[in-house]
Amino acid sequence: MGKVKYTSQDYPSHPFLLPLASLFQQLSTNPETGLDPIATQKYKDSYGPNELSDKSSVSWHAVLIKQISNAMILVLVLAMALSYGVTDYIEGGVITAVIILNVTIGFYQEFQAEKKMDSLRSLSSPSAQVLRDGIVSSIPSKEVVPGDIVVVKTGDTIPADIRLLEAMALECDEKILTGEAVPVAKETKFETPAGGNELTVGVGDRLNMAYSSSTVTKGRGKGVVVFTGMHTEIGKIAASMQGTQRKANRSLSRKEGGNMQPVKGLGLRIWDSIGKFLGLTVGTPLQRKLSKLAYLLFGCAILLAIIVFGVNRFDVTNEVAIYAISTGE
């Protein structure tokens, strides 16, 4: 069975900037009665369950294979084979140690990152108080959909990203998102600074929003759900940890970039795959620079080896091979 593709949760601008009337209209919801059964089912089918992706199930062998099957390790394996081939066991042993150390450290770091996804999932609220068809009831959090009117109180975990409609002495602990140790006081009459937008107003400064997996430390409130699942702020963190967020301009749809978009998007996706294999487009900026330097040095070594072989008219003896390897190093 193929993977179900759900509708993206998009708005003209971020919900913390939109007038409430516009938000209610787009979500087809009513702040007094909530969603009706028809709209609820429609959004369930369109947006899917309100939960983090299950791609994070930890498979140690998959992580290990990923660490081994990258170009840099393959280059080192080739160098190791050449060293052993010319009976230079000391150099071969050193390269072997480097390979083992590299794979071990990389495996440990990635395996730990994968396991953190389980921790993020455990922070989700198991249930939510939702107003639907005029009745407040408790439902599993994974059934919450955009447009739901959610009621929260002290001790609750926010089930999804919500735009606040009511906030009575409401404070939320958002350190999981912002790192701030002090709970944030929420307000519904939040005024965005002049010229403010999603890029200039940080997550912690959007006082009319409450975020999934944050906890209510004081007061009570009510809000309309605007993002669920992987579209929430905590979901974005999960996606970045998984490396599943697609970069811009990678779409294959003509609707998003014109008639040439499929060709452009496919080309960029191919480049991303090659870059990922070579280690040139993944990892930290320092790791990417080191990868580029390593390939540059490897290219120089190959060039010098070819020159040595050429001088000897490609009559490659053990002595010539050893000299070529030594020159390349």
From TrEMBL:
- Give the SUPFAM superfamilies listed for this entry: Calcium ATPase, transduction domain A, Calcium ATPase, transmembrane domain M
Q: Which species expresses this protein natively?
A: Ramalina farinacea
Q: Which one GO biological process term can you cite for this protein?
A: inorganic cation transmembrane transport
Tell me the protein's name. Potassium/sodium eff
Primary localization: membrane
Keywords tagged on the record: ATP-binding, Cell membrane, Membrane, Metal-binding, Nucleotide-binding, Translocase, Transmembrane, Transmembrane helix
What membrane topology does the annotation report for this chain? Multi-pass membrane protein
Compartment(s) where it occurs, according to its Swiss-Prot or TrEMBL record:
Cell membrane
Q: Which GO terms describe its molecular function?
A: ATP binding; ATP hydrolysis activity; ATPase-coupled monoatomic cation transmembrane transporter activity; metal ion binding; metal ion transmembrane transporter activity; P-type ion transporter activity
Gene, per the UniProt record: cta3_1
Q: Where are the transmembrane segments?
A: 68-86, 92-111, 293-311
**Superkingdom of origin:** Eukaryota
Q: Which InterPro entries match?
A: ATPase_P-typ_cation-transptr_N, ATPase_P-typ_TM_dom_sf, ATPase_P-typ_transduc_dom_A_sf, ATPase_P-type_domA, P_typ_ATPase
Give residue ranges for domain Cation-transporting P-type ATPase N-terminal: 14-88
Q: Which GO terms describe its cellular component?
A: plasma membrane
